[in-house]
């Protein structure tokens, strides 16, 4: 596996608070301090900062398929749910998530939005991370045209927003369910002019098969490859708008070296329009960005033999 997901852990030690005794701390505790006769085994992860990215993972808001599927699971086989769009409640969920990402500062830090090329994820992505209402005459293309996908929404501008790019490798389970079959890219380009669809290789959906449902293990492998691809991107803070099954099976490939509670924070099922922020660590040199905060030291140059090295001699 070429990358790992972990959550940042910060330890604050007050200058007036004594360190707890090793005998009083459970080895499960992240601040565990070994006694002299024990081998030090850190329970944190420590990685170079320039090998890390912040990824904001979002499941799409409520779609019409979620409503019909909860009434009757056989509805997922209905052609009426082809490329399911958001419900009015789903758009309310998008509005609330948009308020959250703006209030938390996430919206201004995002450098790239990666989105699965299905209608419900495209709507969620532009509604959450897009600009304000589109104004004629402004030199910025529309992220979404008015009324796109049977919505009552006005056009959404791309003004002062990060790039949006559609990527097929973060799609939902492929096959059988018509709600997971996408429309043509030419149709999406009409509805979402400012989204970059250049990484989608075919106009029509050739990945979805009516009789074959993608296996969980294959979806997980696809998800890990997607994470590897993210690790090669130059952007340091990225939003990914995708699907429940993709998130669940992909994220369950990670966190196996963590406490079960931490793994659950990573990989439990997402609610509609839920956002979780994680750290993606490049452990295998997938990316090539040099560190920007490191400082080489020894300027000007001088003798600097450390005492521990002297002890070794």
CATH fold type: Rossmann fold
Going by helix content, strand content and strand pairing, the class is alpha/beta
Question: pLDDT below 50 for ≥5 consecutive residues: which ranges?
Answer: 1-33
The N- to C-terminal Cα distance equals 39 Å
Q: Kindly give the count of domains.
A: 1
- Looking at the overall shape, the CATH architecture is 3-Layer(aba) Sandwich
According to CATH, the homologous superfamily is: Phosphoglycerate mutase-like
- Percentage of residues assigned to helices: 25-40%
Proportion of strand residues: 5-15%
Strand tally: 8
Largest beta sheet: strand ordering? 1-8-2-7-3-6
Q: Tell me the Rg in angstroms.
A: 23 Å
Which word captures the global form?
A: globular
Tally of helical runs: 9
3D structure, described in words:
May play a role in carbohydrates metabolism. It holds the Pfam family His_Phos_1. This is Phosphoglycerate mutase-like protein 2. It comes from Eruca vesicaria subsp. sativa. Residues 1-33 have low confidence and may be disordered. The chain is 27% helix and 12% strand. By secondary structure, it is of the alpha/beta class. It has a 6-stranded mixed sheet with strand order 1-8-2-7-3-6. A two-stranded antiparallel sheet has the order 4-5. The radius of gyration is 23 Å and the shape is globular. The protein has a single domain (56-282), classed as Rossmann fold, CATH 3.40.50. The chain has 9 helices and 8 strands.
């Amino acid at each position: 596996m070429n990358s790992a997901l972990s959550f940042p852990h910060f330890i604050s030690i007050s200058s007036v608070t004594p360190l707890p005794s090793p005998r009083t701390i459970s080895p499960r505790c992240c601040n565990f301090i070994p006694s002299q006769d024990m081998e030090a085994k850190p329970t944190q992860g420590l990685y170079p900062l320039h090998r890390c990215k912040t990824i904001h993972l979002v499941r799409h808001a409520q779609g019409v398929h979620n409503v019909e599927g909860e009434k009757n699971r056989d509805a997922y086989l209905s052609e009426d749910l082809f490329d399911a769009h958001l419900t009015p409640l789903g758009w309310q969920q998008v509005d609330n998530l948009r308020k959250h990402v703006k209030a938390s500062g996430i919206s201004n830090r995002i450098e790239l939005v990666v989105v699965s090329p299905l209608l419900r994820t495209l709507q969620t992505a532009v509604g959450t991370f897009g600009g304000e209402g589109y104004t004629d005459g402004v030199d910025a293309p529309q992220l979404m045209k008015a009324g796109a996908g049977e919505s009552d929404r006005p056009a959404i501008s791309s003004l002062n927003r990060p790039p949006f790019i559609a990527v097929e490798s973060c799609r939902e389970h492929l096959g059988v369910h018509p709600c997971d079959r996408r429309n043509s890219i030419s149709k999406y380009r009409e509805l979402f002019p400012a989204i970059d669809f250049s990484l989608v290789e075919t106009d029509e959906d050739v990945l979805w098969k009516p009789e074959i449902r993608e296996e969980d293990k294959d979806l997980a492998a696809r998800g890990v490859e997607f994470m590897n691809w993210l690790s090669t991107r130059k952007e340091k803070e990225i939003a990914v708008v995708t699907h429940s099954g993709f998130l669940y099976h992909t994220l369950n490939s990670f966190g196996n070296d963590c406490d079960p509670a931490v793994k659950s924070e990573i990989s439990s099922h997402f609610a509609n329009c839920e956002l979780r922020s994680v750290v993606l660590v490049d452990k295998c040199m997938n990316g090539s960005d040099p560190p920007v905060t490191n400082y080489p030291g020894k300027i000007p140059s001088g003798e600097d033999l450390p005492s521990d090295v002297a002890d070794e001699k």
